[in-house]
Design brief:
With 226 residues, the protein is an alpha+beta fold. It has 5 helices and 15 strands. The chain has a 5-stranded mixed β-sheet. The chain has a 5-stranded mixed β-sheet with strand order 4-7-8-6-5. A 3-stranded antiparallel β-sheet has the order 10-11-15, with no helix packed on it. The mean pLDDT is 94.
């Protein structure tokens, strides 16, 4: 087993991106096969976070996706960390000023699918749009099959796409870096505190909603997740 940490938001509501503004950037699509599950959605265009503060020193702006200051991205790249890709992003502050010095930070490292030994099961699926709903995870210690891990510093295990993970090496560097606006928990420590949230199902659209197309094909197509 590899030592790892959850890499999450700082749990300060006032620092998070405005949820309403984020919803306006989404395009919703009904199931082409007429499935009765909820619509799938994906963002139109580059990421644009809106925050309710004027602190330009917040290095990471968290919403459903993360905007990271370009200076942080440069430092991560210099250190040789792997498992992420970036693309342009903007952040608008409370005073109306907009900065284009941020990058959308997508975790791309892959640790496969949560193991059945964790208790998770596929509850429902739709062949028309690849929508799936997974059952609760009862034992997070058995969630990851490390033989499926790509070995990258930042990674996730499907379907826990919003619970980003990082190696102990990356976590120690982040803690010592002076970078603001994130939290770390050993293993799935942070998710364990919210495990009840998994009891109502884990609905997910296709993997291409969370990964660049080439990686969605690489990892998702053999598993019917693309």
């Amino acid at each position: 087993m590899v030592s790892f940490c959850q890499f999450q938001d700082p749990a300060k509501y006032e620092l998070l991106a405005d949820f309403g503004a984020a919803l306006k950037q989404l395009e919703y699509t009904a199931c082409p096969a007429g499935g009765k599950h909820g619509k799938t959605c994906r963002r139109i265009g580059d990421l644009h976070h809106v925050v309710k503060h004027n602190d330009r020193q917040e290095h990471m702006i968290w919403g459903g996706v993360i905007a990271v200051h370009e200076g942080v991205v440069e430092r991560l790249e210099r250190e040789g960390f792997s498992g992420f890709r970036t693309r342009p992003a903007r952040v608008t502050f409370l005073d109306g000023g907009t900065s284009d010095e941020y990058r959308e930070f997508t975790v791309t490292g892959w640790a496969g699918v949560v193991r059945p030994e964790s208790g998770m099961r596929l509850l429902d699926s739709c062949p028309g749009c690849l929508w799936k709903n997974y059952g609760p995870i009862t034992d997070l210690d058995k969630a990851i099959d490390w033989d499926q891990w790509t070995g990258e510093d930042f990674f996730f295990v499907w379907p826990l796409t919003r619970h980003r993970l990082c190696t102990e090496r990356a976590a120690k560097w982040l803690e010592a870096s002076g970078i603001r606006s994130f939290s770390l928990g050993r293993g799935f420590e942070l998710l364990e505190k919210k495990k009840n949230s998994l009891c109502f199902g884990i609905p997910r659209g296709p993997l291409s909603h969370d990964l660049p197309e080439d990686l969605a094909i690489k990892y998702g197509r053999p598993l019917g997740l693309e």
